[in-house]
Every structure is written in structure tokens, then in C-alpha cells.
């Protein structure tokens, strides 16, 4: 009953997408997957579609987001990632456990194959060599560390940071990588220490005001000629979209930046972008959704109905974000000048 009372209040305050998402997530029963997918990614009545893209208006969005950004970054990360490692195992690829966009060149790949193809592409961009000091910012369950280790067989020089305690424990128990619980935004990096630094799916958590100072720090942390590789999604417009407000349900305290700002900050910090490509996140989101649905009962046993519903709504909502062209997935290589 409470959820129906909150619905109009949250819709008026945060917008129709936020209101609907909350209403669905709070359902006391597991949501019907086909209905959720169709309702979120399908054709919407034109008036609702206009409203969800334009309400709240820009000035209100900025105020709401400023309020949300006051919360500690670390709490927002924990809210999303410290759910249950076993739960994530139900829908991610089993070999690496990547929680980032895969590559489906023909559209017929399984999630296992698509993540392996993505990992191969990233290896070719990072170009890791034994003996090189390599750091991953936001390493998740160690997926890319594993793939790099397959190339270099050099664990001693591989290092990862995450803000999820569950992921630190997972890496310790399963991979034996040097993974630290550490905020890569606040870290003071040793000068000219690393040959390569990369991040996959972590940059979108960094708030716009933090990006340029962080880029400067990373520039200082790389050896001369060092390389920074990033895979992340950003928004296409500088204006904060309404999705940034609705997205607070899934990633509290995170706000991504505009593509043009990233380019400007990277270059101003002393990097030259030497390669870049754009990738389609949608097939990955659909694959995770299907895996989650196939494992519904176990998922609910592990995390409860509300969290199950939240992820069931999250995947199609993110699908819609890319389908509407609000954001795009970028992979690029930057060389220290
Ligand atoms: C979407 S996951 C991606 C994980 C992994 N790179 C992958 O490809 O599967 C985002 C990761 O970024 C980490 N992260 C986000 N902000 C961070 C910060 N400020 N410091 C350290 N880790 C952070 C999270 O803890 C999580 O491990």
C-alpha cells in the first residue's frame, strides 16, 4: 500500500521514470519479466515519453542531483555491489565475471563468448608485458586482471582497486590478486610508477568535478610514455538528462559526464587519445536479464524479492538509456605526452 502512496510523491519530485521504477521495484512479488521488459523498452505513449524525457526540468534536475551527490561515494558503491557475490554469479559470464559491456560482433555469441571477445580487444589495447606495473581502477571480481594474467603470468606486478568489500573478499578467495579496498579518486599515487593503468566500467561512477583532477593524478602516476586505457559509458549531451535522476535508484551518488568534457579533460591533463571505439551495451544487458530470469528462485533466495526486482528493472532501464541514444559506451587508449 505504501508504495502506491509514495508513487505520486516520488513522481512529482523526481520524475515519472523514477516514480515508476520505485513502484515496480517495491512490488512484494517477483515482477513478470516479459511485462517489465516490454513496459520499459517498448513503445511508450507519446505524452508519457515526452514527460519522462523532460520532467523534472533542467534546473530541478541539477538541484536534485546536487543533493544526491552529497552522499559518500563509498556508500553508493556498496549499495550496488555489496549485494552478494553468489547473486552476481547467477547472471554474469562464469569464466571471468565481467560486469561490463561485452562485444557481440555477429549478435549470435553467448555472453561467455562475447566477454572473451571484449577481453581480447582490451588486451590488445592495454598490451600488457611481463615485468610492467599494471593497475586496474575499479577491478570488480578481477575479470580483466585474470585475462591480463593469462598473457603475462606476472601476478606480482598486477594490482587492482575496488570500493566493494565483497569484491575484495572474492578476489582474495578465488584469484589471489593484489586487490585493495581503496578509493581511486582520493588516492595519492606514487610518481611515474605504473606502465599501464586502465579502468573498465568504473569511470561512470566518477562525478564530473572529480575527473580532471583525477586525470592529472593518473598522468603523474604513469611512467613517461605510459598508457591509460578506459572503457566506460558517458552521456552525449552536457545537459544532465532526466535518466541521471532515475539512475540514482540503481547507482546512488554516481553521475557520469559528457563525452565532449571527457575529451577536453583528457587532453588538458596531458594525454593524447590514440584509439577510440564505440560499442553497443544492449545485447549484454539483455543477456544478463535472461540469465537473471532463468535463475529467479535462487536469486530471490540469495537477495530477496526487492533486490531481485531492482536488477530485473535495472537491465531494461539501462537498455532504454542506450536505445534512446542518451549515452554511449566508449573504449579508448590514451598515451601520456
Ligand atoms: C561496473 S563494475 C566493473 C568491474 C570490472 N572492471 C569489470 O569489468 O567487471 C565497477 C567497479 O568500479 C569500482 N569503483 C567505482 N568507483 C570506485 C572508486 N572511486 N574507487 C575504487 N573502485 C571504484 C566498483 O567497486 C566496481 O568494482
Automatic annotation (TrEMBL):
Keyword terms: Lipid metabolism, Methyltransferase, S-adenosyl-L-methionine, Transferase
Family: Belongs to the CFA/CMAS family.
Key word Calcium present: no
Documented EC number(s): 2.1.1.-
Coiled coil (residue ranges): none
Gene3D superfamilies: Vaccinia Virus protein VP39
Encoding gene (name): cmaA
InterPro entries assigned to the protein according to its UniProt record, in alphabetical order: CFA/CMAS, SAM-dependent_MTases_sf
GO molecular function annotation: methyltransferase activity
Protein name per Swiss-Prot or TrEMBL: Hydroxymycolate synthase MmaA4
PANTHER family: CYCLOPROPANE-FATTY-ACYL-PHOSPHOLIPID SYNTHASE
Pfam family, one: CMAS
Gene Ontology terms: biological process: lipid metabolic process; methylation
Amino acid at each position: 500500500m505504501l508504495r502506491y502512496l509514495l508513487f505520486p510523491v516520488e513522481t512529482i519530485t523526481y520524475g515519472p521514470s523514477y516514480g515508476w521504477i520505485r513502484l515496480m521495484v517495491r512490488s512484494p512479488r517477483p515482477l513478470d519479466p516479459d511485462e517489465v521488459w516490454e513496459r520499459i523498452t517498448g513503445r511508450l505513449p507519446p505524452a508519457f515519453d515526452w514527460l519522462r524525457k523532460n520532467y523534472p526540468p533542467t534546473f530541478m534536475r541539477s538541484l536534485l542531483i546536487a543533493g544526491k551527490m552529497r552522499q559518500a561515494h563509498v556508500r553508493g558503491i556498496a549499495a550496488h555491489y555489496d549485494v552478494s557475490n553468489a547473486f552476481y554469479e547467477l547472471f554474469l559470464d562464469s569464466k571471468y565475471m565481467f560486469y561490463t559491456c561485452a562485444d557481440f560482433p555477429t549478435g549470435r555469441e553467448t555472453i561467455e563468448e562475447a566477454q572473451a571477445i571484449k577481453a581480447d580487444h582490451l588486451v590488445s589495447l592495454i598490451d600488457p608485458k611481463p615485468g610492467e606495473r599494471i593497475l586496474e581502477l575499479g577491478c570488480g571480481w578481477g575479470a580483466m586482471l585474470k585475462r591480463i594474467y593469462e598473457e603475462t603470468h606476472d601476478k606480482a606486478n598486477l594490482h587492482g582497486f575496488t570500493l566493494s568489500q565483497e569484491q575484495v573478499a572474492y578476489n582474495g578467495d578465488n584469484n589471489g590478486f593484489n586487490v585493495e579496498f581503496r578509493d581511486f579518486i582520493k588516492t595519492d599515487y606514487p610518481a611515474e610508477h605504473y606502465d599501464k593503468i586502465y579502468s573498465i566500467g568504473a569511470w561512470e561512477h566518477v562525478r564530473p568535478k572529480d575527473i580532471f583532477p583525477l586525470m592529472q593524478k593518473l598522468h603523474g602516476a604513469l611512467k613517461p610514455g605510459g598508457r591509460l586505457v578506459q572503457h566506460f559509458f558517458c552521456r552525449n549531451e552536457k545537459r544532465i538528462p532526466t535518466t541521471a535522476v532515475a539512475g540514482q535508484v540503481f547507482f546512488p551518488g554516481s553521475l557520469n559526464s559528457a563525452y565532449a568534457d571527457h575529451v577536453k579533460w583528457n587532453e588538458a591533463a596531458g594525454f593524447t587519445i590514440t584509439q577510440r571505439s564505440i560499442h553497443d551495451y544492449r545485447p549484454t544487458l539483455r543477456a544478463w536479464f535472461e540469465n537473471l530470469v532463468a535463475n529467479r528462485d535462487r536469486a530471490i533466495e540469495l537477495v530477496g524479492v526487492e533486490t531481485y526486482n531492482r536488477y530485473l528493472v535495472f537491465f531494461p532501464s539501462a537498455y532504454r538509456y542506450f536505445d534512446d541514444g542518451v549515452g554511449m559506451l566508449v573504449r579508448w587508449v590514451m598515451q601520456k605526452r
